Amino acid sequence: MDPIQAANELAFRVGFSGHSGHLRVEPLSTVERRNPLRSIPDFILPPAFPRETPESIKKYIEETYLHPRLDSDGFSPEKVGRQWEFDWFDRAEVPLEPSLPRTMVIPVWEPPFRRSNDGSVKEIWEPKFEEVDVSDLTSGAVESGSLPRPSGKDFVRGSISNRPFRPGGLDDSRSLERILPEGASNGEWVREILNGDPAQTIPPSLKQGLNLGMLKPYPCSWNVCKEANSLKSSSDENLSGLSVQFDDLFKKAWEDDAVGQQEEDGHLSDVETVMLEAEVGSSEVSSKARESEMSLDDILSSDSEGSKLHLDGFSNEIGQQKKEAWAMHEASKRIVDCFHELVPDMALEFPFELDAFQKEAIYYLEKGESVFVAAHTSAGKTVVAEYAFALASKHCTRAVYTAPIKTISNQKYRDFCGKFDVGLLTGDVSLRPEASCLIMTTEILRSMLYRGADIIRDIEWVIFDEVHYVNDVERGVVWEEVIIMLPRHINIVLLSATVPNTIEFADWIGRTKQKEIRVTGTTKRPVPLEHCLFYSGELYKICESETFMPQGLKAAKEVLRKKKLTSGGGSGPKSGISAGHDNARVQKRENTSRVKHHGANFSGTGRGYQNNGNGQNNWELRRKDASMWLMLINKLSKKSLLPVVIFCFSKNRCDKSADSMTGTDLTSSKEKSEIRLFCDKAFSRLKGSDRNLPQVVRVQNLLRRGIGVHHAGLLPIVKEAVEMLFCRGVIKVLFSTETFAMGVNAPARTVVFDTLRKFDGKEFRQLLPGEYTQMAGRAGRRGLDKIGTVILMCRDELPEESDLNHVIVGSATRLESQFRLTYIMILHLLRVEELKVEDMLKRSFAEFHAQKKLPEMQQMLKRKLDQPTKAIECIKGEPTIEEYYDLYSEAETYGNQISEAILQSPSAQQFLNTGRVVIVKSESAQDHLLGVVVKTPSPNNKLYIVFVIKPDMQSPVDNALSGSNLQNKSGAFDKGYFVMPKSRRGLVDEYNTSVSSRKGRGVINIKFPYGGSACGMGYEVREVDSKEFLCICSSKIKIEQVGLLEDVNSSVYSKTVQMLLDLKSDGNKYPPALDPVKDLKLRDAKLVVTYQKWAKLLEKMSQNQCHGCIKLEEHLKLAKEIKKHKEEVYALQFQMSDEALKQMPDFQGRIDVLKEIGCIDEDLVVQMKGRVACEMNSGEELICTECLFENQMDELEPEEAVALMSAFVFQQKNTSEPSLTPKLAEAKHRLYNTAMRLGELQERFNLHIDPAEYAQENLKFGLVEVVYEWAKGTPFADICELTDVPEGQIVRTIVRLDETCREFKNAAAIMGNSALCKKMEVASNAIKRDIVFAASLYITGV
């Protein structure tokens, strides 16, 4: 390579650095100086050196760096012990570490079934290698980085001080924008070099740069040339691929010294301007096309916003175009047929033949891909979860199984305990968190992600069970949060019931995480179902094999008809009411009775049916109900259809139905013995008083007879005992609420629906098809039953066929986004640098379709921006047409408002009579039409008949065609098509001579619209609604209605046209209109103000210099086009911006609330108050935080504090009023006032919150007295007498209260309040005792 001459006789050269092909600047000692640098390192070559080639460079690198040896002169024996000072390095202070390479070679992991053994030793896998960009590895390190692993509890639960992991699926452009500072990406450093300035010594974003010592004072300049005849370009290149690299600028410097030869031959006289193309180095710019191409300066001078749009938009657009769909749904027969060849070494063997969808899912899991499995209940989705656990164990990683309900978590822990290394994490239980397979609720996983738990680094699989729970209004948002927050290295397994939009949901996940989601599953049930009606002691089949059979319903209706005839001719209620209407009324009465079932009413004399004095009626109803249940169970027992699950949609209904079966005994002596032994062992962990609780005694008596109840009101240990006994098959009849269908994997032979209506917390409604399918899916035990039976109970009436058809074979509920912003979500996200709250909103399922269209909108915006802009050339100097057009548009808007209001008023109707001149709105909205009212509305016709003139004259042929509709044709051309000048006409030719003066009969002989031409103008008679009038003119003309509508005389039409033209003869486009205030008596105050604004705008328009211009109309059209173009560009930019997000206004309001109460500052930095709020997961975070910072707990004892805190976690709305101590009553009042104040604050910042409703929803004081007595040591049996809340609800509230105490304790530690921290610890210990915290039977075993 030839040396480059620099200023001040300092020669240097550009050469290889020896590290990944980087360039370096090497000074050359060509001039002997007085104090030469004698200690220059040995990589500086002498001044005269041969031309470099790749071979010579390779040889030089090998000799200099790869073959190190001692310098024989410097390290001779006579110089032993001497020390050398390399002053050149001391002065230059050049770091000796080599620069980082751009790429690295890493091994590629392959699944076992894809590994090739060709050329390798047997059973030894030789991996392949690939070259990857270092930036990719760097971005990966951010999310699963090499930070030291902390020990202790933070490893699993995380800490509020930890930084959350970078969510997977974020755009690469975001990471580039974060890594590269503005100075490095805008190309300023390249421009300085090309302009001959010295290279920058301080890199962008750094405070100080390289200290070059003595080399610093010497300036240098660069002359960069390229061969003229080799410069080629294409103007069509996509500039989105633009890449400016330092190596690229000097690529030719070490090639066959083309530049030097050019200079020697004289082919290149002066320095050419370097033009950059879309891909530098792949194609070059032609010198002939320089004028039409974009130069480097043009590219680099683009503003930063454009660059950002270019980077974020179009690079993302290309990626999106390459990947249209992320959900892959391909049922491959090859996978099923060759499964064992594709997966020869399975991580887990199954003792049965796998179904097709299970094989597909396992194959994709082996490939390391995410999977979405959609199948019916009991179809075998758990096999996929088990295999993911096995893969995690095999790969020495971790897998997480999340469930929506704590019962599912406990049951799965018991099921997986014998197969895998399993741990359990719930709100109150933490078992073996160090295990490789963890089972937890989805809320726990969300907390771990937000708190940056270090265990996340080890997780390979996250399994979401019951994904259709995303439709839950209260908790569905948790699933979306977790899916968005998961890091890139975690694969996802989703298990769901069959839903209509599986592909859509999977596509959202894939697009969010930027990874393919394999969709598989089956719509086939492992055990087919048949659906029957039970009416009058008989079963009527209405559906089989997913096909509705109306014959069974008709047969049941025929029985009902005969029954009504025999009972006296249908004196009962009206037919056609759904099956559950009567039951709904019963449930409503039961819900208002609020009666608890203790031992006293076990014998069957429940008070719940004695309501409003109708004791006798309720008693009859109860007897009738009991006889129906006995009739049904006897029928099922004879047909061997037991065990049966009976779904009742009320806890009271379950208890009373079970209590009514007093004389029924369905168990054998052996089963009774098994039940007794199981119950004794299960309840032996309770102390004496707890074993004799009314509910425990009552349920044991039911269980011994083979009858069980299952609902949220049961104690957890009682509910688990019922579930386990049912799974053993000794319970024959189980009365349950719908939670049993989702929370317990316990299929039965038969499922019975007590009603098809339920109360959803707001109203009674029909069951949804998805809810029915979920519960009906419990019918049929795989491997035991050939068919499952589903029965609908019908009492006095039969349901309609349409209702049955919709519920049984209707489409399941679609997965819908329930995403909503919460304060704790906002505070957590404000701590994450890579993921803003706006990004979370964009990635929600609710915004999926809008974000999916983003590439298309980006392309459309690019086309709009590339369109040439039209300029308006004004002869009067600087154009003000934009201002004039704005005034014109605003005036037109006001005018339309006034016209619409006026034309509907009664006063305007008085003026709209025959002969009134009006202006009719044009269809093209360019030029409105002048017309006259010919006929007013009549009772038969509500429209006006108007004669209007049009500027476009029709041809005679067109007129003949339009006139062909006339009933009386007078020839090819009627009179009046060609009009002679008035001076040459005689009396006979006057317009009105041929018009008869007879009185019209009101007959209309033309077909609307009727058109023609006269006096050089086109005309048309049409029917017009009053809304189509633009304004009413002050003029009125005399018209011949008979000649226009009945006789259809052309001379009359000509005369009417001429009269209208005469009104325009004074130069105005339209005659003056009636004044809205003076003439039309406008009285509306708002309209009067609008009219005044309109008049002022007209005055401003008249003062504008464009007013009256000869080119005004042309310029207005241009201004309209320019304005429309700008509005379209703005609309596209708005739709692509964060402001277009649906929940953006709610987000802004919540941010203002957090600023107002001090959780964040003006720069959105989370303050200590915000960190405290992040700890509050159990209750409403704002109320809890304000309660702590107002020191409301300081004056309370631990028992009183924990009792008051129960208001945060208790859920039931309607309860009996508690009896509180004066101190607790005052604390309750103070806390309620705090909630009201926060509600009013949120309402002030435009959040849709009612303060009273906000306080009542988030503070429920129904168990304050109960918890206070429990914390003081009162037995559980005694506290149950203080309230009407079921025992199970009490236990669940106190268990959640323990978690709330831990959160308040952590918050107190952040605040530095040691007294409150100690108080929360004492309160937590006070409530942890006896039956409330009895260990789960699933965890400890029985």
Automatic annotation (TrEMBL):
GO terms for molecular function: ATP binding; helicase activity; hydrolase activity; RNA binding. Residues 632-830 form the Helicase C-terminal domain. Residues 362-517 form the Helicase ATP-binding domain. Residues 608-617 have a biased composition (Low complexity). One of its GO terms (cellular component) is cytoplasm. Keywords: ATP-binding, Cytoplasm, Helicase, Hydrolase, Nucleotide-binding, RNA-binding. Coiled coil: none annotated. InterPro entries: Beta-barrel_MTR4, DEAD/DEAH_box_helicase_dom, Helicase_ATP-bd, Helicase_C-like, MTR4-like_stalk, P-loop_NTPase, RNA-DNA_Helicase, SKI2-like. PROSITE patterns: HELICASE_ATP_BIND_1, HELICASE_CTER. Residues 136-174, 564-617 are annotated as: Disordered. It is found in: Cytoplasm. Residues 582-593 have a biased composition (Basic and acidic residues). Pfam families: DEAD, DSHCT, Helicase_C, MTR4-like_stalk, MTR4_beta-barrel, Ski2_N. Its main location: cytoplasm. One of its GO terms (biological process) is mRNA catabolic process. This is DExH-box ATP-dependent RNA helicase DExH11. It comes from Flemingia macrophylla.
